[in-house]
Design brief:
Structural class of chain B: alpha/beta
Number of domains of chain B: 2
Distance between the termini of chain A: 53 Å
Strand order of the largest sheet of chain B: 3-2-4-5-7-6-12
Largest sheet of chain B: 7 strands, mixed
Strand content of chain A: 5-15%
CATH class of the largest domain in chain B: Alpha Beta
Number of domains of chain A: 1
Strand content of chain B: 15-25%
Oligomer: heterotrimer
Distance between the termini of chain B: 48 Å
Order of helices and strands of chain B: EHEHEHEHHHEEHEEEEHEEHEHEHH
Shape of chain B: globular
CATH architecture of chain A: 3-Layer(aba) Sandwich
CATH topology of the largest domain in chain B: Rossmann fold
Structural class of chain A: alpha/beta
Number of helices of chain B: 12
Helix content of chain A: 40-55%
CATH superfamily of the largest domain in chain B: Thiamin diphosphate (ThDP)-binding fold, Pyr/PP domains
Number of helices of chain A: 12
Number of strands of chain B: 14
Chains: A alpha/beta, B alpha/beta, C alpha/beta
Shape of chain A: globular
Largest interface: B-C, 44 and 44 residues
CATH topology of chain A: Rossmann fold
Strand order of the largest sheet of chain A: 2-1-3-4-8-7
CATH superfamily of chain A: Thiamin diphosphate (ThDP)-binding fold, Pyr/PP domains
Helix content of chain B: 25-40%
Radius of gyration of chain B: 20 Å
């Protein structure tokens, strides 16, 4: 890897990844304590993808995500307190408590949302890309989805149309080898997602999703091409889902990674090692960044806890736009 | 003799027993049989028990095809909302083939899907949408509220030669109940009178059946004797039992977790207003969810839903003890 | 040489079925002029696709199965379903194969493995995949043919089904009859592969499945390609995608109009929408039925008289079919509530 990253952007990436890591861990605790209720899906382990991709986007670029969306929302700029309050069902939440974990939306930061139905977000991204193109600007749309979504009809219908209409949409697949509780081999005999879309001829590449530098570089290329009027691209990031499909998943279907193995794969630890080697990270930075993130998250928890629950009548107000 | 089982296990028992009894019964869907120790896989093998990718259109469409070719598939869909992804296959294919072929083919499939999980599963995973599948010619709709019915209705669903949408309520998942030993089939179109009474008829569906029973206990303390009816299947719908009850009580409250115009309650009310008009001493009251996507935040989620006080209040309205709400 | 191993009897059979299908479809089309109002709704003809249909069906055994699209008349004709019952069905009569319940788009003949027809683009593909799952469990070497058009290959149902069939190695052959048109849309307007000048068979790569493209106007080329795929399927090696290039000689279907407007077949969309008379006329010149007849007569397989006799027999058969259809009674109105449930 070339050392294009000086201490600025490198540290920024680490900050984002630590922020996500700390947030997800805290949410896991809060879920077990029932302060966050309902269904949550944590993105611990794939912080490199969210940070590497979203860090390069503008506020007017649009990001869609799936049910495992906290990291993407945070990386796109959603305030931690707003996300936390949403998970706690408070009025101060991004969606005033209406959506919850799987339905986070932050229009101000271009995060048009998480969705609970696998693959449902992909055509939406096409719509946003089309709107951007029609408006004459160079905004792009990015959609995050997992390897499980690729076998769904809605996915390939979208790939065909995006390619045909040369839409500036970048499809980012977090391939963690599992779709809910089954490994990829139970879903298809085509191992690489990039091979599934190969027949459509769009730009595509598979990278190590836990190497945030690699994610960043490849995405930068796709981003530049899309802004210059190019069509869609697919970035397949091979990554790891540290937690279960949802919080509470007993994960009988796979073996846990040994701690030493994860040390080697962990996107944060890897990037820190690189920073130390390349000299743009001080020796005490890792511990400091980790602590800063924990503090930020704790502050978010505090603010969220103070936020009131929304008024019951809010539901009636929001069913239809006025 | 009977044995006690949680609701969800009663359903599994029915599937397992039918698969044992009839080699043509299959069981497939996402996240099924993903490891060798899975009991279904061990007992019935990888031909009859398979995991599918996230591909609802293909899952349900294949169920149609494998049915036409002589098998009896149970498709595990997990949530009613996921049927929406494949709506054409559910209401425009599976239910029509027997008819359009002039009776040449049968489509004996079962779609097993959960619903109503008002426990923070948010807008896309919590709906009560069986109303979308009523009035669909050729498609039967089943909504058990007890472990015994969960078993008995699944048995019947598998044996039925028509496509069946089998909706199990997620809030009832761990509710224990006595399930009769041995082969147990509950016929479709036969409502259950869960509580006998003479002052008012309360019809509940799925999870609102225990809610209606709880409200009935409260009402009994106030000297009101409620009859609670559980239709058990929405298609075929046992209108006769409901009308018989209304003929006795003259007052009808229907409790349904769906939104008002998408509810089975509206259909039942229409039947009562039509054939039971002469018996009615008060308007039919519907207690349904308020019209909104189910919100995530708990107080709002609860606010939308029918609950015991709302049921009691509706009963008081039809008894003339409370002002009738518009 | 294409069609190696096919003897005179088989070759004669192929020409006969192609001729019968053509005559049947001509008579369906003719009904709009001869007996207006008899055919209601929407009907879709297979003229131009005979070589593809028959070449594929020639590979089947009696216990195999197939499902097709709403452009379904040709297949049961070739399978041997009584054409009287087919015409009566299209005319909505009790003598119809589905007793008038289905009509043109929903022909079914389970006795011959023709398992049922969906009118919704692409939705028969999962049905066929399910039938192949049944065949796999039964393990008697049955194969399923799944026919659909180029339009269907954009449907999610196509993608989902081919993925599962490949993963489970189901005994199915997917036959994509690419006639370049999806109603009034040309395939390049809606398909990324076609827009890039690639064959649609390319899509097979997404499923780790073999994909081949074949001249659907040559029944022997189709026979060869489908035979190979059928052998693969029968031996448990899984599915194949066969793209068969055809040209339909009629418009997508008769016009869609509210009651009161007489229905008829408009001209082909190539002409009416794209102004491409040359393309259409070239297709007429390459009409597969007279082409195959000429081939068999030229190479001595058949004499001209034998070929004429086949055509004459077809004419007579389809005349009988029309007469039977017109004479077959309509069902009683109250029959509508039968067959809702098994």
């Amino acid at each position: 890897m070339s050392g294009q990253l000086d201490d600025g952007p490198g540290v920024e990436l680490l900050r984002t990844m630590w922020r996500i890591r700390a947030f997800e861990e805290r949410v896991g605790q809060l879920a077990r304590a029932n302060e966050v209720h309902g269904l949550v899906h944590l993105s611990s382990g794939s912080e490199g993808v969210a940070a590497g991709v979203c860090g390069q986007l503008r506020a007017d670029d649009v990001v869609y995500s799936n049910h495992r969306a906290h990291g993407h929302a945070i990386a796109k700029g959603a305030p931690l307190a707003g996300v936390m309050a949403e998970l706690m069902g408070r009025d101060g939440g991004l969606c005033r408590g209406m959506g919850g974990s799987m339905h986070l939306v932050d229009v101000a930061h271009g995060f048009l949302g998480a969705t609970g139905v696998v693959g449902g977000n992909v055509p939406l991204a096409l719509g946003s890309a089309l709107a951007g193109r029609l408006a004459g600007g160079d905004q792009v749309a990015v959609v995050f989805f997992g390897d499980g979504a690729v076998q769904g009809g809605i996915f390939v219908e979208s790939v065909n149309l995006a390619t045909l209409w040369e839409l500036p949409v970048i499809l980012v697949c977090e391939n963690n080898g599992f779709a809910e509780f089954t490994p990829r081999s139970a879903h298809t005999n085509v191992e690489r997602v990039s091979d599934v879309v190969a027949p459509y001829g769009l730009e595509r590449e598979t990278v190590d999703g836990n190497d945030v530098g690699a994610v960043r570089e490849t995405f930068a290329r796709f981003l530049a091409a899309a802004r210059a009027g190019g069509g869609p691209a697919l970035l397949e990031c091979l990554t790891h889902r540290l937690r279960g499909h949802y919080e509470g998943d007993p994960q009988l279907y796979r073996e846990a990674l040994a701690a030493e193995e994860w040390q080697q794969l962990d996107p944060i630890l890897r990037f820190q090692r690189r920073g130390l080697e390349e000299g743009w990270l001080d020796a005490d930075a890792p511990a400091r960044l980790e602590q800063e993130a924990a503090d930020e998250v704790e502050e978010a928890v505090r603010v969220a806890r103070e936020s009131p629950f929304p008024p019951a009548g809010l539901t009636a107000e929001l069913v239809y736009a006025p | 003799m009977a044995h006690e089982l949680p609701y969800i296990a009663a359903i599994g028992e029915a599937i397992s027993e039918e698969m044992e009894r009839d080699e043509s019964v299959l069981y497939f869907g996402q996240n099924i049989a993903t490891h060798e120790e899975d009991p279904f896989l061990k007992q019935f093998g990888p031909d009859r028990v398979r995991v599918t990718p996230i591909s609802e259109t293909a899952e349900i469409g294949m169920a149609v095809g494998v049915s036409i070719a002589g098998f009896r598939p149970v498709v595990e869909l997990y949530m009613a909302e996921f049927m929406l992804v494949a709506m054409d296959q559910v209401v425009n294919e599976a239910n029509r083939f027997h008819y359009m072929s002039g009776g040449q083919v049968k489509v004996p499939l079962v779609m097993k899907a959960g619903y109503g999980f008002t426990a923070g599963w948010a807008g896309q995973h919590t709906g009560t949408i069986y109303g979308m599948f009523m009035g669909v010619p050729g498609l039967k709709v089943v909504v058990p509220s007890t472990a015994a019915d969960a078993k008995g209705l699944m048995t019947t669903a598998i044996r039925d030669d028509n496509p069946v949408a089998y909706f199990h309520h997620y809030l009832l998942t761990l509710e224990h109940g006595e399930v009769p030993d041995g082969e147990y089939a509950v016929p479709f179109g036969r409502a259950n009178v869960a509580r006998k009474g003479g002052d008012v008829t309360i019809v509940g569906i799925g999870w609102t059946v225990p809610r209606a029973l709880a409200a009935a206990e409260q009402l009994a303390a106030d000297g009101v004797d409620a009859e609670v009816i559980d239709p058990r299947t929405l298609n075929p719908l046992d209108v006769d039992t409901i009308l018989e009850s209304v003929a006795k009580t003259g007052r009808l409250v229907v409790v349904d977790q769906s939104t008002r115009h998408g509810s089975a309650a509206a259909v039942i009310a229409a039947e009562a207003a039509d054939a039971g008009f002469g018996s009615l001493k008060a308007p039919v009251k519907l207690v349904t969810a308020l019209e909104a996507t189910v919100p995530y935040s708990e107080p709002m989620e609860q606010y939308l839903m029918p609950d015991d006080p709302k049921i009691v209040n509706a009963v008081q309205q039809v008894l003339g003890n409370a002002p009738v709400a518009a | 040489m294409a069609g190696n191993g096919l003897d005179k009897e088989r070759l004669t059979w192929i020409l006969t079925q192609m001729t019968r299908i053509r005559e049947f479809e001509e008579r369906v089309k003719g009904t709009f002029e001869e007996s207006p109002g008899v055919i209601r709704g929407h009907t879709h003809l297979a003229d131009g696709a005979e070589a593809s249909i028959v070449g594929a069906l020639a590979t089947l055994r009696p216990d195999d199965m197939l499902l097709t699209t709403y452009r379904c008349h040709g297949y049961p004709v070739a399978l041997g379903t009584d054409t009287k019952s087919l015409m009566a069905e299209i005319y909505g009569r009790t003598g119809g194969i589905c007793k008038g319940y289905g009509g043109s788009m929903h022909l079914t003949d389970v006795s011959r493995g023709f398992m049922g027809t969906s009118g919704i683009v692409g939705q028969g593909i999962p049905h066929a995949t399910g039938a192949a799952y049944a065949a796999q469990i039964r393990n008697k070497g049955q194969v399923v043919l799944s026919f659909f058009g180029d339009g269907a290959s954009k449907q999610g149902a196509f993608h989902e089904s081919l993925n599962i069939a490949s993963l489970w190695k189901l005994p199915v052959v997917y036959i994509l009859e690419n006639n370049n048109y999806n109603v009034v849309t040309r395939v390049e307007q809606e398909d990324a592969n076609a827009a890039a000048g690639e064959p649609l068979a390319t899509k097979a790569k997404a499923f780790s499945m073999p994909g081949v493209t074949v001249d659907g106007g040559d029944p022997l080329a189709v026979y060869d390609a489908v035979s190979e795929a059928v052998d693969r399927a029968r031996s448990g090696e899984g599915p194949t995608l066969v793209e068969s290039l055809v040209y339909r000689l009629s418009a997508h279907g008769n016009i869609i109009a509210p009651p009161g407007v007489p229905l008829h077949f408009p001209e082909h969309e190539a002409v009416t929408v794209f102004g491409n008379k040359e393309e259409y006329e070239a297709a007429l010149r390459g009409d597969p039925v007279p082409r195959f007849r000429a081939k068999l007569v030229t190479d001595g397989t058949l004499t001209a008289e034998e070929a004429d006799a086949i055509a004459a027999a077809a004419k007579e058969e389809m005349q009988d079919a029309v007469e039977f259809g017109l004479a077959s009674p309509y069902p009683a109105g109250e029959d509508a509530v039968k067959y809702v449930y098994a």
